[in-house]
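Side project, low priority. Logging it here so it doesn't get lost.
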Amino acid sequence: MQGDPYTILGISRNASQDEIKKAYRKLAHQHHPDKTGGDDAKFKEINEAYQILSDPKKRSSFDNFGQAYNDGGFPFGDAQGRQNGFGGFDFSDLFRGGFRSGSMEDIFDIFSGAFGGQQTRQESTRGEDIYLEVRVNKKDLSSTKTFEYQVYKECDECKATGLAKGAKIINCSTCSGQGQVRETSRTPFGAFTRVMVCQICKGKGRIPEKECSKCKGSGRTAGKKRIELHIPKDLADGYSVVVPQGGNAGPLGKPMGDLVINFKLK
C-alpha cells in the first residue's frame, strides 16, 4: 500500500480502535464503488489502511517501521526493492530499537514476504458490514417499510460450529497444533527462518474432524434477511443509518457485522 494509513483514514497516530473503526466506516460509505460518485481505487486504499490499523500486530509493525512495512508482503516499499529484495530498506533500523515493542516473531513477519510466498491474513474476528442503498419516494415518508437484502446467516445445520454431526475438533496435523509453521530460506545474508500462520487451520491449531456439508466448515450460509424501518417525514436525501449487528454473521459463530443503510429520495 502506498501512503500512510493514518493519513488515509484521517486519524491521529494514537487513535483508539473505536476511532479507527468509525473513520473507516465513514470513508468506506462515502467512497463505496456502488454509490453514485464512488471511487473504487480510493475505496480499496481505505480498506487496505483499515486492514493494517485494525490489526494490533500489523499496526505495531507499521508504527515501528513506517513506510518500510507493507502489508502486501514487501517490507522494503518500492519497485527497486521488489527487484533485488533489499532496495530502500535501512538495515540499521534493526539496531535502533526498531523492535522495541515487538519480538523475534515480529522480525520473521516483517521479512516473510521477501523470500517467496505470501503472508496469510489473520482470520476475521467478526462478520462483514453490509452497505445498502435504498431509494424511497416522497409518498413513503412517515411510513414503515420492509427491506430485504442478501446476507450470510449462521448455519442452522451445525449451529455455526462448522462441524458435521457427531464430529469433534482435533489437532491440526500440518502444524501439530501450534497454529504456525516455520520455513527456512537461504539468502546472501545467511539463513532466515520464516514463521507463518498455518494455512490449514488458519492459526488456530485445531480443525474439525469432519466439516459440515451445508456450510463447508464456515459456520454460515447465504440467505436473505428482512428489516422494518420507519421512514421519518423529514428524511433528507443521502441520510444514513447504522443498524448494529444487521450485517453478515461472522465465521464459526463470531459476532455479526453492521448494516449501513443510505437513503436516496427519488
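Brief comment: The mean pLDDT is 77.
Revisit when time allows.
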